[in-house]
Amino acid sequence: MEAQVLAILRGQLEHIISGAFFLFIGLAACSIAGIRRRSGARLFIWLGIWSSLYGASVMAQSRAVVVALPHTFQTSVPYMQVVASYAVVVVASLAWLELSLGGLRLVIKIILVAGSVVAVAGIGWFAFGGSAGTFLPYNHMVVVCALVLLITVIIVEKLSDRFMVLPNRRVLAIGTLVFAIEALWVNLARRLGYPPPSPLLDHLSFAAYLLSFGYVAVQIAYANEHRLLAIENELALARKLQHSILPTSIPEIKNLRIAAAYQPVTAVAGDFYEFVPVDGKQVGLLVADVTGHGVPAALIASMIKVAMQSVVTSAHDPCEVLRGLNRILFRQSLDQFATAAYLWLDTENGKALYSAAGHPPLLRLREGKLEHIESNGIMFGVIPDPDYPVCELPIHPGDRFLLYTDGVIESENATGEMFGDCRLEEVIRNHQSRSPSDLSAQLLSEIRLWQPASLAQQDDITLIVIDVV
Length: 469
Prior knowledge:
Layout: H1 2-36, H2 41-60, H3 63-68, H4 71-97, H5 102-127, H6 136-155, H7 157-163, H8 169-191, H9 199-245, E1 256-263, E2 271-279, E3 282-290, H10 294-310, H11 318-332, E4 338-346, E5 351-357, E6 362-366, E7 369-373, E8 376-377, E9 391-394, E10 400-404, H12 420-430, H13 436-450, E11 461-468
Parallel strand pairs: 5-8
Antiparallel strand pairs: 1-11, 2-3, 3-4, 4-5, 5-9, 6-7, 6-10, 10-11
């Protein structure tokens, strides 16, 4: 009995080893896709399924493996073989689709549709009692057409450069040629009545094809990781540069207590704030919000920083400050817009001047009463020379002012409801006895609680709290 079992295993060892090899490659590719979870992961997923289907089909040809399976699985083996036979061309087309560009992508989609139709017909026919091989000639026809097309594109360098994403064309060309030549040989041998070559040759040629494809997938993944690392390094530098344009300290102004909070939504942001202290009794405070996020918005925010240097001499006049910033940004912003609010505080004369460019209102808390102060002109970048009305306000000890960007009130919860003006006012009233820095921290905490942990911050947040003491 042992001798018979060994003889059976020796005869089927080729299928067992080959099937296990392709299953291992498939599982490894799917594991890589699960670990990476970045662009390019789909290529590993299709490669993994492709290899697993082939490996499972080869393993199912071993009687010893099938007998070792539980009875429930044994009855499903024929269905699995049929699914693998028909579905492999569909999965292979999806894998090639990840490497294609332009017109070739459209042609592969047509092949994918044709392969899917044949697969559904063949599997359905077998499920309802028909022969498993009824639609296989059509399946082989789709495979042949796909191979001829792909070999042509890969071999002709101009075509591969134009229609494919291939860091190393030669490796994939060799693997595909080996597989195509072997497949052609097998089909011709069958038609001419010659004995087909050993199944081992099938497995080796497919292994060469699959491994060449995997080599290209690994190269693409490496190139993507290298590019992402370079981008992350550049963003880290951009983050440092942006933080360098923000104030490094709060100015010491007589009878004022000031706190600022800045919370960007991405590595670099479009929010900006600046202090313009003239002397120990006068200071200008600017808050700006560029439309959009990321690097483009951050570049405009940096331009506002530079532009502020040219309007410092007009720091006491909010209208001239905003008009000067708008003139510079209108010429340079390339259809990028920004809102801004500017508050001038003069503690010596007990007055404040305020003007804004399409920005949320200034809030003033006085003796428990919260006021919305609006003095808005048009946002930056729309027209070359707008007018910005200025509101003059008396200031008294106990006054509290709040400048902020719309990221504060537009933060949404899980149902899409905004934090809103009412909740902002409620937090300010409930914590009016707290210091400016404590109030800023409380507001940020309330906004974080309003947003679900699974939902990312939607907009940049900047706020400045000023107390008159």
